[in-house]
Amino acid sequence: MKTLTSASSNLNVRSIDPLPTPAAVLAELPVSSEVAASIRRSREEIRAVLNGVDDRLLVIVGPCSIHDPDAGIEYARMLADAAQMHREDLLVVMRAYFEKPRTTVGWKGLINDPHLDGSHDIAAGLRTARRFLQEVAALGLPLGTEFLEPISPQYIADLISWGAIGARTTESQIHRQLSSGLSMPVGFKNGTDGGVRVALDACAAAGAPQTFLGVDEGGRAALVSTTGNPDTHLILRGGSDGPNYSPAHIAHASAALAAAGQNQCLIVDASHANSGKDHRRQADVARELADAISGSGTIAGVMLESFLVEGAQKLDVTAGGRLAYGQSVTDACMGWGVTASVLGDLARGSRRRRQGGVS
Ligand SMILES: O=C[C@H](O)[C@H](O)COP(=O)(O)O
Ligand SMILES: C=C(OP(=O)(O)O)C(=O)O
């Protein structure tokens, strides 16, 4: 369906089709009171880690993107066991990314194109994402995601314990406004050029009350007024000028946060420009961080890209064809074996920090 509101509008629009409302999808796929309580609890735990009240290390780990819910669930079960094993030292959150920001063009994630064939069945994508989150949340594993489209949070945010705004959108006013109203802690990545200032500005903007155009649960355009998000924080992911996880980079970022009157605790992404997008290098970066955290009170968390099978495969939505099971179709990931060993190293680093009494 496409409606022309005037002879001069929608000239480049092929179609506009209504989607089910957030309220309809939430009613179809509700959250039990037990799961809702466990999500609220995990948000509090993440807050406590970010504020230095809980001395564990936050680890946000999982596939670069979820493209096959079955493989994602198999991964989640293994991660839930590992999270349980390391619960004294690590607070593990599963990366469940359904929306991919692209440098130019490419598959934009399971919500945008759930059949991976360019058919863009977003109604199915929203339901598939929500069903996946329900299933993982029922395992007791907290979930993290990148919020990219400003409308999709209405469909899934109640199931998310930690949110990220990506390097390509940290400077966007729309994403800062959105974050100011989200109910969970939200981390802002430094820019793709390595600039940390945009993320500090983002934390300040998202921490402030905002009024903007949004949608309500009924899918209607709405005036949204927020209180500001008290739990914004910085994520260092490296940039075009190289990695930014060295002790000097971390001290510099932490001082900039303090000067801006913001929380000095930050998260380091071991992937992306911090590992030159090389999944083998990512494990080395994570191990360097495991050593570094024992002497640093400011590294509150680490991000890892990991899936069942290491590496990545090419997805061509126009060509079809079979995909290897459990391997990323976006950025290359560490495989499960290496991930399990890296989690052990991070747990040991977290324990050493506690024993050394680093504050
Ligand atoms: O993490 C994912 C990617 O790095 C990001 O979405 C950009 O991907 P692209 O450069 O392949 O488009
Ligand atoms: C896109 C991502 O990261 P960045 O914004 O750092 O490129 C991601 O984590 O999937």
From TrEMBL:
Q: Which is a Pfam family this sequence falls into?
A: DAHP_synth_1
Describe the location of the DAHP synthetase I/KDSA domain by residue ranges: 48-341
> Its annotated pathway?
Metabolic intermediate biosynthesis; chorismate biosynthesis; chorismate from D-erythrose 4-phosphate and phosphoenolpyruvate: step 1/7
Q: Which domain of life is it from?
A: Bacteria
As recorded in UniProt, its EC number(s) are: 2.5.1.54
Per UniProt, the keywords (alphabetical) are:
Amino-acid biosynthesis, Aromatic amino acid biosynthesis, Transferase
- Which residues fall in a coiled-coil region? none
Q: What class of enzyme is it?
A: transferase
Q: Which chemical reaction does it catalyze?
A: D-erythrose 4-phosphate + phosphoenolpyruvate + H2O = 7-phospho-2-dehydro-3-deoxy-D-arabino-heptonate + phosphate
Has UniProt tagged this entry with the keyword rRNA-binding? no
Q: What is the protein's known function?
A: Stereospecific condensation of phosphoenolpyruvate (PEP) and D-erythrose-4-phosphate (E4P) giving rise to 3-deoxy-D-arabino-heptulosonate-7-phosphate (DAHP).
Q: Which family does it belong to?
A: Belongs to the class-I DAHP synthase family.
**Name of this protein:** Phospho-2-dehydro-3-deoxyheptonate aldolase
Species of provenance: Arthrobacter parietis
